[in-house]
């Protein structure tokens, strides 16, 4: 294979990264950058995943969320199996450019969680007391919107 | 020092973690869990940081965001210097319980970014073309709400 140059700018000074307008995302030791996906209309946080250099570039170009699955160690075009493609309405990065935020509209069932919920964050943690191993979560989302066994069958979830 | 037991439940089966109601957060190899903070009212994503076992437990108990600063390698009670304390209205976790989401109301200036912006995600990435090192970000937030040099002076930012 031919070595390809990065589609992203090099990171120079801290000031340039934090206050400038050059897009110079930081990838971690595994070559990944975390990505938060939120619903473009409601603002609800839907999921959290990672992108590689290649899949971040592909997401920018395509306007659909393409992640890197750490568990499967492969490119993960969200919705390829489930139909829950995430159309990217807006992409942002944070002050030190080591996190990506995407505002998306989800196609198909509208569920982004592999369990069929609209959001992966469907359970709340009780506050106000020191947590213990007996601390119980509360389900705070309606759903699921689909049956994962029907949608994925024996396939990996995407 | 006395060894203290974890305030969180052990992670047993994948089904228990994903579908159950036992709070069993996963900490990475560095003992940290990522945390997304959003504005409790507008839903806007404000910042992304990490918590340790101790600071997650403290956040739950106190109802104020306490992070672990990776750059300073120390406990980080958000707002201790700047006054931008994040009061936690709700905490959630995701399907595999390896991410924390907090809905917060920010005291003081209302800014969560150390540069004085309400959100760290104040710049947008242009979509629809393959990114290049010349790709320019666009500032999409008003601000900053405070002057970092005045608020922090020579102190570390918190």
Automatic annotation (TrEMBL), chains A, B:
One molecular function GO term is: phosphoribosyl-ATP diphosphatase activity
What Enzyme Commission number(s) apply to this enzyme?
Answer: 3.5.4.19, 3.6.1.31
Q: Which reaction does it catalyse?
A: 1-(5-phospho-beta-D-ribosyl)-ATP + H2O = 1-(5-phospho-beta-D-ribosyl)-5'-AMP + diphosphate + H(+); 1-(5-phospho-beta-D-ribosyl)-5'-AMP + H2O = 1-(5-phospho-beta-D-ribosyl)-5-[(5-phospho-beta-D-ribosylamino)methylideneamino]imidazole-4-carboxamide
Q: Might you name a Gene Ontology BP term for this protein?
A: L-histidine biosynthetic process
> Is Hydrolase one of the keywords?
yes
Q: Could you say which enzyme class this protein belongs to? A: hydrolase
Pfam families named in the record: PRA-CH
Q: Which family does the entry's similarity section mention?
A: In the N-terminal section; belongs to the PRA-CH family. In the C-terminal section; belongs to the PRA-PH family.
Q: Which InterPro entries match?
A: PRib_AMP_CycHydrolase_dom, PRib_AMP_CycHydrolase_sf
Q: Which domain of life does this protein belong to?
A: Bacteria
User: What organism is recorded for this protein?
Assistant: Rhodobium orientis
Is Hydrolase included in the keywords of this UniProt record?
Answer: yes
Q: Which segments constitute the Phosphoribosyl-AMP cyclohydrolase domain?
A: 47-122
| Known pathway | Amino-acid biosynthesis; L-histidine biosynthesis; L-histidine from 5-phospho-alpha-D-ribose 1-diphosphate: step 3/9; Amino-acid biosynthesis; L-histidine biosynthesis; L-histidine from 5-phospho-alpha-D-ribose 1-diphosphate: step 2/9
- The protein here is known as Histidine biosynthesis bifunctional protein HisIE
Keyword tags: Amino-acid biosynthesis, Histidine biosynthesis, Hydrolase
Do you know which PANTHER family this protein is assigned to? HISTIDINE BIOSYNTHESIS BIFUNCTIONAL PROTEIN, HISTIDINE BIOSYNTHESIS BIFUNCTIONAL PROTEIN HIS7
């Amino acid at each position: 294979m031919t070595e390809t140059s990065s589609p992203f700018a090099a990171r120079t000074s801290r000031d340039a990264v934090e206050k400038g307008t050059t897009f110079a995302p930081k990838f971690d030791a595994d070559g990944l950058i975390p990505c938060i996906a939120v619903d473009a209309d409601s603002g609800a946080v839907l999921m959290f995943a990672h992108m590689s250099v290649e899949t971040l570039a592909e997401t920018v170009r395509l306007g659909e969320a393409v992640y890197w699955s750490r568990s499967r160690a492969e490119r993960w075009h969200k919705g390829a199996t489930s139909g829950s493609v995430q159309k990217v309405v807006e992409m942002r990065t944070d002050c030190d450019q080591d996190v990506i935020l995407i505002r998306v509209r989800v196609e198909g069932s509208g569920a982004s969680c592999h369990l069929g919920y609209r959001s992966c964050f469907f359970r709340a943690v009780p506050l106000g007391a020191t947590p213990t191993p007996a601390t119980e979560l509360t389900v705070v989302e309606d759903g699921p919107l689909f049956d994962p066994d029907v949608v994925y069958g024996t396939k990996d979830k995407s």
